Every structure is written in structure tokens, then in C-alpha cells.
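Async update (no meeting this week)

Hi team, since we skipped the sync, here's where things stand on the single-chain job. The sequence we agreed to prioritize is pasted below, unchanged from the tracker. I ran it this morning and attached the output directly underneath so nobody has to dig for it. Comments welcome in thread, and please keep replies under the output.
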Amino acid sequence: MADLTERVAHQTGLDEAYRASLQQMLSLIRARHYSIRTEQSYIDWVTRFMRWCAGKSIAEVARTDVERYLSYLATERHVSASTQNTALNAMMFWLTQVLQRPHEEFAFRHAKRPRRLPTVLSRDETGRLLSQMEGIYALMAGLMYGTGMRLMECVRLRVMDVDFDYAQIVVRSGKGDKDRVVPLPEKYKTALHEQIMRCRSLHRADLKNEVGPVFLPDAVSREYPNAGNELRWQYVFMASKVSVDPRTGLTRRHHVHETTLQKAIRRATQAAVINKRVSSHTLRHSFATHLLEWGYDIRTVQALLGHSDVNTTMIYTHVLNKPGLVVRSPADEL
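Output:
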């Protein structure tokens, strides 16, 4: 992954003022400890907007330019509502934090937000899918189904967040930067304990080889300088190789890349002959739906999923065809 500092410095087609503002934006993002994905996304969107405004100086860029660009994304590029919202957030950060302009409301054509039902696997399909997976990916997929964790929540799981005594996992900084507690499936306790033992061995080897400390969130590294070398802060699902951190230049061991798990799930879906559009998030959807099938109340499922609004969780009642009452098809009465 190329360092954005270098990429920004060598942007072609942008004048010096634009490049300087991108560099300033990058510094402000890192000072606020935004995730590397947010950093990349914001820089990419602002760079695209700058190219779209070709011929105008920064001083000439106005609110109407942002509004026209956002409308262009919806009407001509046909981006999704979430993509358009990311672009808006990126440009708002640039305008208010870098250019120090007052916060303004934008009037633009919003992308349509379609209401689609999530893909859910039956219990038989879930079992077939998981049976086709092996090793670390079988454990990760099993935990995603057994706990309702999102993809990155599972990938970023740290040793300290697994509590075997209380049979629970603490999900840190989930969507909305919220923590929550989910159950640790009895079925995966042994495999998860063995995985942590492998982590310990790998971590000891890294310390011996003077590999850099693991990445730490927010201000933890400043408050606890040596925490990155402690086992409890290591990722449960460590990468097989060390890599260079593009932000700090340190050689350290990160977590496994999420795309490797996604690919493993796709291969297992094909091997299990499941003719549904299955992704890693399908396991989370299936977790929620099966809990409702077993009679757990909607508020309990909401808490386990980390939803702020129960209406978000209510979509699973539609998957079950139970918006309030069980509906029986009249065809079954013939």
C-alpha cells in the first residue's frame, strides 16, 4: 500500500495550492487518528473533486461547485447513497477543517437509497458453508455467524477482548465508535484458545526478531508506550507476514487482510452449492434472523448487533415474513 504522503506530493494535473491543501488535509486527518481507510477515502474523493473543478483556484471554489458535483455523482455516475454521503463528508472536512470555511448546508440531488432485504442463509445452508472452510478462516467465519460481528470487527479482534471465563467477546469501536458485548460460542472456544496460543508463539518470535509494536488505537500508544509489545494488544488473527506501516514506516505484524476471508467465503459458497448471493455480511444477517426464529426479542438482537435504532433491526422480521403476524400463503389452503 503506497503511502498517501508520497502519492499526494506527486499528484499530476493539480496546481501547487491544491497539492498543499491535500497535504494539510492529510496531516489533520492523522492528527485526529482517523482510520487508514477513512484517510484514503477522503483524500481520493477530494482529489477527484479538485480535478472536476479544473481551471478554478481554491479561492474560487464555492458551495455551488460542491452541490453540482454531488448531484453529478447521483445523476450521471449513479453512485449509491452511501458513496455520495462519503464524498460529502470528505469535502465537508476539506472545506471546514482545511480551508477554514463556515459549515454550510448543501442542496443537491440525493442518490436513491433502495430498500433491499438482506440475504439470509438457512441453518442447513450455514452448516454446509462453514463445513467447507478450513483453518483460520473457518474459525473467523464461525465467529462471525456465532456472534454477529461485522467483517472488520472480526478481523481486528484483539487477544484482550476474548473472555473465556465469562464466555463473551468485547467488540471494540464498532460502527459509530461503540463497544458492545457478544456471546462467545461454546463450539469455538477450543479453536479460539488454540489460535491465541499460536499468536503467543508468533508474538514471542517477533519480539526476539525486534519486529515493531502492533498498531494501537487513538492515544493508547502515547499513554502506554510499551503496550504495543504486550500479548493482550495483539490481533487474534495475525497476518502471516510482517509489513511496513505506510504511516509510520515501522515494520510490524498487522491482522490478516479482510479480502482473504471474503475470498474464502466465496469459495466455500461455491463448494457448498449455495445459489444465493453470499458475502461475509450474510453471516451477520443469518445470526440475527436465526435468533429471531428461536424466539429472542428484537431488543436483545438489536443490542447484540450494535444497532442504534431498533428500526434497523426490524428488517429481519421482514426476512422472516413476520412483520407482526405469521402470514400463511393462501396457496397452501388449496
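Quick observations from my side:
The mean pLDDT is 88.
The first helix runs from residue 4 to 9.
Reply here if anything looks off.
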